[in-house]
Every structure is written in structure tokens, then in C-alpha cells.
């Protein structure tokens, strides 16, 4: 008997819910269209089109340097090094090496012996130091105030020319990289 009462009460409730969900009080799925223009409008991209072209110069060592000046943004700068060493160039037996070396680069240098020493120097500048590895390249970069470009370049060159590979850092980063690889490989199926 109790089951029959429950079924009858649900039958009375369903039409009420249906009316509520489809009433004018419910927001229309087309409610955003009233803000849209019937004529497509192009965004004004002219400030970006007026940017000066990048200048590529080559140092006596063969290092290519790309510079571009932004007159309206003279207070900030981004400096970086792009290395043609991405996953595309790795063999099955060396898979993950570029990414591993990218992580290890921030473990310290001869002049800045710990990861903390690197972090403190960058943070004291109010800068941001980062890196990433893609299929084609490994990139190390810093976003700094314009006056700190020489110091940021010094840090970047020290990281790339004089890295330290402390044993405990090697084991730790090996685990980090293996976990990241596992996350990427199972992403479509997890």
C-alpha cells in the first residue's frame, strides 16, 4: 500500500517539475543571443600588426639571438633560450631525456649550488624563471624587468653551461618524470 501511495505522489510531482523546468521563469537556452551582434564584428588587431619585426643576429659562437622591441612595454622583458632538443629527436631507449635534463637544470649550478639559491636570486629580481620541453625543443626563459635583463641572462647561461646534477636530485626527478610520462600516456583512457 505504501508503494502505491509513493507512485501516485511521484506522478503528481512529475507534471509540476516539467512545467517548472519549461516555464518562462526558467532561463532560455538562447538568453546569450540577445547580446550578440547580428553582424559579425572583427576585433581590432592593428596594434599587433604594427609591432616591429624581430631581428635575428648571430654571435661569433654561432648562437642566434632574436630581439624584438616593444616601445609601449619598455619596463618588462622576456629572455629565453630555445634548444633544438625535444622528444622528436629521442630514440625509444632515450625517451624522456630532454624533459629530464630540463628538470635537472634547475637543481643548481657551480656558482649557484642549490635550487634554492637559483630561486632566491630570481625572486629577488621580481622575476619568473621557467622551462618546458616540447616535441621540437626545450625552452628556458625568464620574465624580468627591463633593467634586470643582464642578470637574467647570467642566470640562464649559468644554468645551461654549468649545471650540477646532485645524486639525490637525479633520483627524485627520475620519479617525477616517470609519473608525468605515466599521466600523459594514460590520459585518454583514465
TrEMBL record:
GO terms for biological process: proteolysis. Pfam families: Peptidase_M16 (PF00675). One of its GO terms (molecular function) is metalloendopeptidase activity. Gene3D superfamilies: Metalloenzyme, LuxS/M16 peptidase-like. InterPro entries: Metalloenz_LuxS/M16, MPP/UQCRC_Complex, Pept_M16_N, Pept_M16_Zn_BS. It comes from the Eukaryota. GO terms for cellular component: mitochondrion. Residues 65-188 form the Peptidase M16 N-terminal domain. This is Peptidase M16 N-terminal domain-containing protein.
Amino acid at each position: 500500500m505504501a508503494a502505491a501511495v509513493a507512485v501516485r505522489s511521484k506522478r503528481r510531482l512529475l507534471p509540476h517539475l516539467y512545467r517548472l523546468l519549461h516555464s518562462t521563469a526558467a532561463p532560455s537556452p538562447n538568453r546569450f543571443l540577445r547580446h550578440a551582434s547580428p553582424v559579425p564584428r572583427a576585433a581590432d588587431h592593428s596594434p599587433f600588426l604594427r609591432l616591429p619585426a624581430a631581428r635575428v643576429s648571430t654571435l661569433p659562437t654561432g648562437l642566434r639571438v632574436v630581439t624584438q622591441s616593444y616601445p609601449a612595454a619598455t619596463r618588462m622583458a622576456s629572455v629565453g633560450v630555445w634548444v633544438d632538443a625535444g622528444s622528436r629527436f629521442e630514440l625509444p631507449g632515450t625517451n624522456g631525456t630532454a624533459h629530464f635534463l630540463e628538470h635537472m637544470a634547475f637543481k643548481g649550478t657551480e656558482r649557484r649550488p642549490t635550487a634554492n639559491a637559483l630561486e632566491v636570486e630570481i625572486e629577488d629580481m621580481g622575476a619568473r624563471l621557467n622551462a618546458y620541453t616540447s616535441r621540437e625543443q626545450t625552452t628556458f626563459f625568464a620574465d624580468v624587468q627591463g633593467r634586470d635583463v643582464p642578470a637574467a641572462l647570467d642566470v640562464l647561461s649559468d644554468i645551461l653551461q654549468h649545471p650540477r646534477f646532485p645524486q639525490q636530485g637525479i633520483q627524485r626527478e627520475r620519479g617525477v618524470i616517470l609519473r608525468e610520462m605515466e599521466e600523459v600516456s594514460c590520459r585518454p583512457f583514465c
